[in-house]
């Protein structure tokens, strides 16, 4: 449109230029409504007839005046419109032509694209058909291979099942033999422990050995023979012959027990008339141990037999060595920093159930036992929404077993010292786990002896190399900021540990377990042992008081008159000796307990003891 207007402007300029050349001076108004030329021309044009006008135009060839402006403008306008129309038509034609060409181009493009799409679809269909054909061929081959594979697998499975059945049968027979030998071992231990207890009650071991002769040597030979059988069980190299050998060993130890019982009975019968000689008391002046007074070297000069019996010292050394050896089984686990979370999870898996132990009901106890048993068995347990399995590390189970033994002894210190009744629910769990894991029992004894050596019983003497602090720490005292704990606090802690240890003697395991691996025969051995030692300040009276208060009633039921005689010896022989060195609270409490026994004729059943088959 701009192009058209521009052409129109050029047209006007050209017209006016030509008109100015045709006309001379213009004196009158020539443009607008007041134009004289326009009026004159119009009047002339009106007066002159049409034919005449034509004639004049034809004939008049003389020079004439330029045409009027309106005619020029009319011509110009007409030309402009014609030119404009031509331009518009030209543009329209161009547009039509362009549109047509674009349409044809688009149609061509669409056609080509449609052809390409059709070709692409065709190629895809062909490819899919080829793939389907190939797939069918592959599937056919795979099916053949699969059928062959399943046939081979079925054949192997049948062979494996046959082999497995044979292996299971062998394993079943092996397990039967092992289980039978295990029962023999437990029975042997029980009988052998009874023999040791009986021997301890004999006032003259030399006379006993002389009376038994070669039979006494069986006490060493029979355990070694049974250990050989048990060693083969550990190597899974047992058969019916080994079981029969184990049965023979048990029968021999039973016969030996019967023979020893008769011999000890004869010896004791001879000694009935000599009670003073049979009294297991130390007549020499005792050595006082007072943490308030520094221990000098001269105080430690005493014979070892004043502090511990040779048998108990050997037992103490063996247990401590076992504890030391066991700590080597998980030293790598402690050294690896990246296993910190694993160690933490194991501790939680132990601390949570142990801290929650109580005799609220049987289900509660069983739940805590199952969790601890599963952990030590290498099974997965859930602790605070986390799965914990000790077998995730090769040293995980020894680590957890050590933690659990240490934790139970610590509960005696922290829990039972303030809540004595709790000792029995802890003891029944301990006994049940001890039946399942014998090494756990040894570790437990190791930590008991470490925290409270009076349970051996062992009054540990001071060595020349020890400082006063080191010595009292060995005795069980705690030091805080270089200061030894007060005596009353020390005795309270010892009371909790003692009560838990003594509760184990009379604890009943869970249903399905018939034996207590550390039963009341050990209580008799302990009492006989401590009465043979020189009494110590505070601790001896505390130990005897807790012992009689915890297991006195059961000792009377089991040993009857023999125990009553022993209590009489304590009151008439041991107490006067004890009073010579000690007159404090522990001695007073022990004396009150004995006077109560004397008036009633029996010891009271302690609070918190669980009934038989409680869980």
What is the secondary structure topology, with strand pairs?
Elements: H1 2-22, H2 36-47, H3 50-59, H4 69-201, H5 205-212, H6 218-234, H7 240-271, H8 275-278, H9 310-327, H10 331-335, H11 340-355, H12 362-377, E1 381-383, E2 386-388, H13 396-416, H14 423-436, H15 438-451, H16 468-474, E3 479-480, E4 483-484, H17 487-506, H18 521-531, H19 539-559, H20 561-579, H21 585-600
Antiparallel strand pairs: 1-2, 3-4
Which labels suit this protein?
21 helices, Serine Threonine Protein Phosphatase 5, Tetratricopeptide repeat, mRNA export factor GLE1, 615 residues, mRNA transport, GLE1, transport, two-stranded antiparallel sheet, two-stranded antiparallel ribbon, 4 strands, mainly alpha, elongated
Structure, described:
The chain is mainly alpha-helical and about 625 residues long. Among the domains are: about 1-55; about 305-600, GLE1-like (Serine Threonine Protein Phosphatase 5, Tetratricopeptide repeat). It contains 21 helices and 4 strands. It has a two-stranded antiparallel ribbon. A hairpin with a 2-residue loop joins strand 3 and strand 4 (about 485). The two termini are about 110 Å apart. Residues about 35-40 and about 270-300 have low confidence and may be disordered. This is mRNA export factor GLE1. Required for the export of mRNAs containing poly(A) tails from the nucleus into the cytoplasm. May be involved in the terminal step of the mRNA transport through the nuclear pore complex (NPC).
């Amino acid at each position: 449109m701009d192009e058209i207007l521009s052409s129109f402007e050029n047209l006007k300029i050209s017209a006016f230029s030509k008109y100015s050349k045709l006309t001379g001076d213009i004196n009158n108004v020539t443009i607008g409504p007041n134009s004289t030329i326009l009026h004159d021309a119009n009047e002339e044009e009106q007066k002159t007839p049409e034919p005449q006008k034509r004639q004049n135009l034809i004939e008049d060839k003389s020079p004439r005046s330029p045409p009027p402006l309106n005619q020029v403008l009319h011509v110009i306008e007409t030309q402009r419109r014609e030119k404009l129309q031509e331009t518009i038509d030209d543009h329209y034609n161009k547009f039509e032509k362009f549109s047509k060409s674009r349409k044809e181009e688009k149609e061509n493009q669409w056609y080509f694209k449609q052809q390409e799409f059709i070709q692409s679809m065709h190629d895809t269909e062909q490819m899919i058909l080829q793939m389907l054909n190939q797939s069918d061929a592959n599937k056919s081959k795979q099916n053949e291979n699969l059928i062959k594979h399943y046939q081979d697998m079925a054949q192997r499975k049948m062979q494996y099942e046959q082999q497995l059945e044979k292996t299971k049968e062998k394993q079943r027979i092996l397990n039967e033999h092992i289980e039978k030998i295990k029962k023999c071992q437990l029975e042997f231990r029980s009988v052998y422990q009874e023999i040791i207890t009986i021997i301890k009650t004999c006032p003259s071991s030399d006379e006993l050995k002389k009376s038994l002769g070669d039979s006494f040597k069986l006490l060493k030979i029979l355990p070694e023979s049974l250990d050989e059988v048990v060693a083969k069980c550990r190597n899974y190299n047992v058969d019916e012959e080994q079981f029969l050998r184990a049965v023979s060993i048990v029968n021999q130890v039973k016969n030996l027990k019967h023979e020893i019982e008769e011999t000890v009975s004869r010896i004791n019968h001879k000694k009935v008339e000599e009670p003073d000689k049979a009294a297991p008391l130390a007549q020499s002046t005792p050595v006082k141990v007072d943490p308030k007074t520094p221990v000098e070297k001269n105080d430690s000069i005493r014979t070892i037999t004043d502090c511990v019996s040779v048998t108990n010292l050997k037992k103490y050394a063996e247990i401590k060595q076992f504890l030391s050896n066991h700590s080597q089984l998980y030293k790598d686990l402690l050294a690896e920093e990246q296993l910190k979370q694993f160690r933490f999870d194991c501790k939680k898996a132990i601390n949570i159930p142990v801290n929650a132990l109580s005799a609220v009901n049987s289900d509660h106890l069983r739940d805590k036992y199952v969790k601890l048993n599963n952990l030590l068995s290498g099974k997965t347990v859930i602790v605070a929404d986390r799965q914990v399995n000790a077998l995730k590390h090769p040293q995980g189970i020894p680590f957890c077993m050590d933690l659990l033994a240490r934790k139970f002894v610590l509960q005696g210190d922290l829990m039972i010292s303030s809540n004595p009744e709790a000792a029995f629910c802890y003891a029944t769990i301990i006994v049940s786990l001890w039946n399942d894991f014998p090494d756990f029992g040894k570790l437990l004894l190791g930590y008991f002896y470490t925290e409270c050596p009076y349970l051996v019983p062992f009054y540990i003497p001071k060595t020349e190399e020890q400082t006063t602090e080191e010595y009292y720490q060995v005795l069980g005292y705690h030091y805080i900021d270089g200061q030894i704990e007060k005596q009353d606090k020390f005795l309270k802690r010892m009371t909790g540990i003692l009560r838990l240890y003594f509760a184990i003697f009379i604890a009943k395991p869970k249903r399905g377990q018939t034996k207590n691996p550390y039963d009341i025969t050990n209580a008799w051995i302990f009492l006989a042992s401590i009465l043979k030692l020189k009494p110590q300040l505070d601790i001896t009276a505390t130990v005897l008081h807790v012992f009689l208060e915890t297991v006195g009633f059961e000792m009377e039921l089991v040993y009857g008159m023999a125990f009553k005689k022993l209590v009489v010896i304590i009151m008439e022989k041991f107490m006067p000796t004890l009073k010579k060195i000690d007159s404090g609270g522990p001695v007073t409490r022990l004396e009150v307990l004995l006077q109560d026994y004397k008036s009633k004729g029996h010891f009271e059943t302690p609070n918190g003891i669980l009934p038989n088959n409680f869980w």
